[in-house]
Amino acid sequence: MTIALWVLLLLLGAASAAVLLEVRKKNLLVWLKSYLKQDWRASAPEGVTKHLMFCFVDHFEPQWQSPSYETECARVARWRQEYPALCAGRKDADGRSPVHSFFYPEEEYRPEHLNALVDLCRMGLGEIEIHLHHDKDTEQGLREKLQRFTELLIRDHGALPRHPVTKQAQWCFIHGNWALDNSHPQGHGHGCGVNNELIVLREEGCYVDYTFPAAPDPCQTSTINNIYYATDDPARPKSHDTGVRVEVGGQPVGDLMIIQGPLGFMKKSRKFGVLPRIENSDVRTSSPPTNDRVDDWVNTGIHVKGRPEWIFVKVHTHGTQERDMDTLLGTPMREAFKYLETRYNDGRDWKLHYVSAREMYNIVKAAEAGKSGDPVDYRDFVVARPTYVPEAR
Predict the structure, then answer these.
(1) Average pLDDT over residues 297-320
(2) From CA 350, how far away is CA 335, in angstroms rounded?
(3) Are 131 and 91 contacting, i.e. CB atoms less than 8 angstroms apart?
(4) Domains in the chain with CATH codes
């Protein structure tokens, strides 16, 4: 064997080892099989106007690595001051401005921060939902946290709706550290400790989860690019790994609806110029919302089975991290909104709808109920908009 051939074999071996290491490091085997199947895709009928529901959810954590109270206040103040300017002049097919869903952590509650976000909500630019980091928790402890926080948000801020009959708080959820239903394989230190969390969430008023995608985190589910119902198995974690897809004419089953954002690979962004980077719907300075990414999100084609002309795009961020705020509140996000309104809002082939997490869920439920046409009619289909007026004591 010649030296050149030996060198070539060594290089191929090194390359193969690098690929395998990357696959393992990024936990690709958890979801790669589902990605290769791509069985979530469907084509809309020819000549039918397609509707794009665009939802931006935010793990909004003012105390993230904060050195001081002043720092967290400055983070919230920047959103209160700059987000209206970012949205000025931006409109979807319904004349609505972009809407930001702030998933606020229970463990970081400060009334002054919520008051600032409520101001944005009253302008029609946002809605507030529930975020929670917890570790080594119990069912009782989880219930106490959720009951206390949701009632506080209604009583003092009018930030969540109540069920019209039961009067229970109604809300969407994102789990801290991606560890929904005690799913982190490393356990303690990463959350959450409660194997029947899906049941607890449902019983305490949660109607949908927006945690995923989580890749490359090990909490990522094998089910990807789907809208589905998960059924809890109290005897084990990660019961939401698979479920029953939401479909037109179907019925809710199990414990909790899961609405996922796009997950796949960035075709035009490659590590070492070779390996495609993971597209996990995360928007930040290191992964800005370029036109190519927007197209990839839309082309993923997440939809309710049987209603392929309604496309759901949910992306996420951690909005209070200084390294990302120039992207989220500046030119990159402004240009992304402009592109959405230009490419996906011509009124013939596409109509764009900026929606909150609550509104996206409502439109999914409308599709399930067999509704068709323009989704603008279903923004408040089953869950009403919060009042943003504190309840009388």
Answers:
(1) 97
(2) 19
(3) no
(4) 48-378 (3.20.110)
